[in-house]
Amino acid sequence: xxxxxxxxxxxxxxxxxxxxxxxxxxxxDGSYLCEHxxxxxxxxxxxxxxxxxxxxxxxxxxxxxxxxxTFYGDINDEKSIWNILENVCPDEIYNLAAMSHVRISxxxxxxxxxxxxxxxxxxxxxxxxxxxxAKFYQASSSEMFGNSIDSDGFQRLTTPMxxxxxxxxxxxxAYNLVNHYRNAYNLHACNGILFNHESPRRGINFVTNKIVxxxxxIKKGLRNKLALGNLDSSRDWGHSYDxxxxxxxxxxxxxxxxxxxxxxxxxxxxxxxxxxxxTLGLNYMDFIIQEKKYLRPEELKYLKGDSSETRELLGWxxxxxFETMIQEMIDSxxxxx
Length: 337
Prior knowledge:
Blueprint: H1 3-8, E1 19-23, H2 28-39, E2 43-48, E3 68-72, H3 78-88, E4 92-95, H4 102-105, H5 109-130, E5 135-141, H6 166-185, E6 188-194, E7 197-198, H7 207-219, E8 226-228, E9 234-235, E10 238-239, H8 240-251, E11 258-261, E12 267-268, H9 269-279, E13 288-290, H10 308-314, H11 322-336
Parallel strand pairs: 1-2, 1-4, 2-3, 4-5, 5-6, 6-11, 7-10, 8-13
Antiparallel strand pairs: 9-12
């Protein structure tokens, strides 16, 4: 089933002309969410942060330009947020804007804290004053748990949060701010704690797409080695399209609260390498090398989320398996390269 067909299967309510505002609309998740909401009948608005290379900043949403309205802005710039919200007056706000690369957050910790923490505060303040009847979604992260793991091997809402990176620390700040604004000001503000999610639209400096792209290049004779960091870190990987569907269900639940979105399975980076290279008829051990520069100062060893409440109470179910997600990514690079 294609993405359009998947989305249409969820058209069981009348969402006609509801207005959604998405920060980070040009990112992986933003582009999938945009498509999903359009198919559900929403009027979609988005905020794009200006970059020096204009042709690269909106390639994920270029085909939707005639269906959406975008504004330049930045969640670190309070004025731009206030102007956009006053202009749009949305029914739903999805905050997907962030400094999204965990390893790079060690190199730019101050910027990461400002964007992923104080930027959320800026957005919540504007939301509270301009459109307090709107529903608010915050993209929280499994990185907030750090190396805290429950005795059964899962992480859930009750698992202690002990982040191991500036990225994770900033996300914990934002998570608590959303909780505070919900409780203090009676706002419909929700956190979705999403575990790792990938797709062909993932940036190539993230390990999944880096591995898939590198393996395809090796298969086509364009390179002979691929440098990675820690091969033994373990992650819970799902598909971005499945996870943005969960975002919509979360924000439209009758009661604002926090949720976990995950596959409930985990694999090591080594397992990922083995699967991708084997699918291409290669042995990963012949091509993978480890480089210190790709290691984190403090490693996050293991993530596996318990999304049972999200599945049972919201009726969410992923369409993609790990295998079909990776195959889609491989097929995409085989066509591109």
